[in-house]
Write a structure and sequence with these properties.
Elements lengths: L1 E6 L4 E5 L6 E10 L2 E8 L1 E4 L7 E7 L4 E7 L5 E4 L8 E5 L1 H10 L4 E5 L2 E5 L2 E2 L4 E5 L3 E5 L8 E2 L2 E3 L5 E3 L10 E2 L3 E4 L2 E6 L3 E3 L22 E4 L2 E6 L2 E3 L6 E4 L2 E6 L2 E3 L16 E6 L2 E3 L5 E3 L4 H7 L3 E7 L2 E3 L3 E6 L6 E12 L3 E6 L9 E13 L3 E6 L12 H4 L12 E2 L1 E12 L2 E6 L6 E13 L20 E6 L1 E12 L6 E4 L3 E3 L6
Parallel strand pairs: 8-10, 9-11, 10-13, 11-14, 12-19, 13-20, 14-21, 19-22, 20-23, 21-24, 22-25, 23-26, 24-27, 26-28, 27-29, 28-31, 29-32, 30-33, 31-34, 32-34, 33-35, 34-36, 35-37, 36-38, 36-39, 37-40, 39-41, 40-42, 41-43, 42-44, 43-45
Antiparallel strand pairs: 1-2, 2-5, 3-4, 3-6, 6-7, 15-18, 16-17
Length: 519
């Protein structure tokens, strides 16, 4: 069975319905009208170069069978070549004015087309009701001239004294360089195609001494209070900081995209949705220098100001490689995170697999609950599962006694809370540091953690490492299931192979069950 994830005016994104994480396990060809338009083996795949307002029937041809799916592309008002407005696409000429003029002049429901070429540009701004399409071989390349990037204030005040939010980074409204592609208060926007959006972070000084800059670094794509935005098929690479940052936005879909940066690049998270509602990240591939996906909802002051949690997130059929965390929640989560589903994904060689990070000071609205991870395979992930309520990075007070004290402190307005987490149907091979590391607060224990059908096998040549970033952290090697300050622990059909010492180390809990487990 084939599911249609997205159909635009010139492209479609489809998904095979099976249970294998990320890959179909066999190669297949996609044919339309007898012509092969795609060949691959991933569960999510795309077809480009379609005609608007046209009915199609696609054949998905496996070695032993053929399946079909029908769809109709959407209508559009026009398709305009960006070169018609003077864009050179030679990688040397500054195409900023030509691109922005083309966006400004594009009729509603129009498509701006970037043919093969390299389009050197400073930041550009989106409008509502439009499509940007990057053809195969088309590259939108960010300029390295930092002094020419506009600096946007975190908040401005209108003539009546009302605040207008403009920019933010790492959970705080603050001055930021304008991002390469910026959408503010826009809706009904699509960024599609097999081309590339390249922030060019390895050149210039974006990755060097950035803490001395007069503003926070730009992202490759920043969406501030936008609605109904789709990124489909594009490669997003080498951002100055985070690659894709939806911010207080709704109905965001990121489908069959490749987000990549060198493993050593600083803070180059792939996708960091912040205080958004209904975000789908499906069929994407990640290889970056920090977290692959990090769901956020701001730090304390911003959360108390807006009270907008992160809600309704779907992550499915993704491949995550080489990041600090494959799937991360936090650490900026003061408005809370709820209703997160991560299924049918493959994690390879990340430091941590499922990573949840918080700390004292995130606040009483920082309630993280109804988080489900199902059908996940991990290969060479150092620590597959981490829930850390002692995170010690990012904040100025991270080394204070308030953060690291193991005493039972009073519960107040700055005390965070974690609720229900379910981990099931997971196979983890060649782990090294710990099978899982779950460390709650004594005054605010995690409500309940359920493990079901979980297998963790350690590599024979495992090396010591730090499972969670916290003060006074000790290096561990082949540590089993470590759980502290969790009220209810359920371990059903859980198996750990190759641990050194006890397979389960649990403390400060109310109940624990180990039905059917080899522990």
């Amino acid at each position: 069975m084939i599911k249609t994830l997205y159909v635009g005016s010139s492209s479609a994104c489809l998904e095979l319905q099976n249970t294998v994480p990320y890959s179909a396990g066999e190669e297949f060809a996609v044919k339309i009208g007898g012509n092969e338009v795609h060949r691959g083996n991933t569960n999510v795949f795309s077809v480009f170069g379609l005609t608007p307002d046209t009915a199609y029937e696609a054949e998905i041809c496996f070695a032993d069978r053929t399946e079909t799916v029908s769809f109709r592309t959407s209508a559009e008002s026009c398709c305009v070549d960006v070169r018609s407005f003077g864009a050179a696409g030679n990688g040397e000429h500054d195409d900023t004015a030509a691109i922005q003029t083309a966006i400004n002049m594009l009729p509603e429901n129009g498509r701006l087309y970037f043919p093969e070429g390299t389009y050197l540009t400073l930041p550009i701004s989106l409008r509502s009701h439009m499509t940007l399409e990057f053809a195969k071989g088309a590259v939108l390349l960010g300029s390295t001239e930092r002094e020419k990037y506009p600096i946007l204030p975190g908040v401005i005040t209108d003539m009546d004294g009302n605040e207008i939010p403009v920019a933010g980074f790492e959970g705080i409204e603050q001055d930021c360089y304008q991002s390469l592609i910026q959408g503010s208060y826009v809706e009904d926007v699509r960024i599609v195609g097999p081309g590339r959006i390249d922030g060019n972070g390895m050149n210039g000084d974006w990755w060097k001494d950035f803490n001395s800059f007069p503003a926070k670094r730009p992202r490759a794509v920043f969406l501030n209070r936008c609605r109904n935005v789709t990124l489909h098929g594009v490669t997003v690479a080498n951002s100055p900081s985070w690659h894709i940052h939806p911010y207080f936005s709704q109905n965001i879909s990121i489908l069959d995209c490749f987000i990549t940066a060198p493993k050593v690049s600083p803070n180059t998270d792939a996708i960091d949705p912040e205080s958004c509602d209904y975000v789908d990240m499906i069929g994407c591939r990640f290889s970056v220098g920090d977290d692959c996906i990090a769901i956020k909802s701001g730090k304390f002051d911003m959360a108390m100001k807006y009270h907008v949690p992160a809600d309704h997130y779907t992550v499915r059929n993704c491949l995550m490689e080489f990041g600090h965390g494959a799937m991360t929640l936090g650490s900026e989560l003061s408005a809370g995170i709820r209703n997160v589903s991560v299924t049918q994904c493959l994690f390879r060689e990340t430091d941590r697999g499922l990573r949840i990070k918080s700390r004292r000071g995130r606040g009483k609205e920082s309630i993280i609950t109804n988080v489900i991870f199902d059908n996940i395979r991990m290969e060479k992930v150092l620590t597959p599962i981490v829930i850390n309520m002692w995170y010690n990075c990012v904040d100025p007070d991270r080394f204070t006694e308030y953060v690291w004290s193991r005493e039972h402190l009073p519960v107040d307005d700055r005390t965070p809370h974690m609720g229900f987490f379910e981990f099931k149907n997971m196979e983890c091979v060649d782990a090294e540091v710990a099978a899982c590391y779950i460390d709650g607060l004594p005054e605010s224990p995690i409500d309940r953690v359920e493990f079901e059908n979980i297998s963790v096998k350690f590599a024979e040549n495992s090396q010591p490492g730090i499972p969670a970033m916290q003060n006074f952290a000790e290096k561990r090697c082949r540590l089993g299931l470590y759980l502290d300050n969790v009220r209810e622990i359920s371990l059903k059909n859980v198996k750990v192979e190759g641990a050194v010492g006890d397979k389960v180390i649990a403390d400060h809990y109310e109940s624990i069950s180990t039905e059917g487990s080899d522990l």
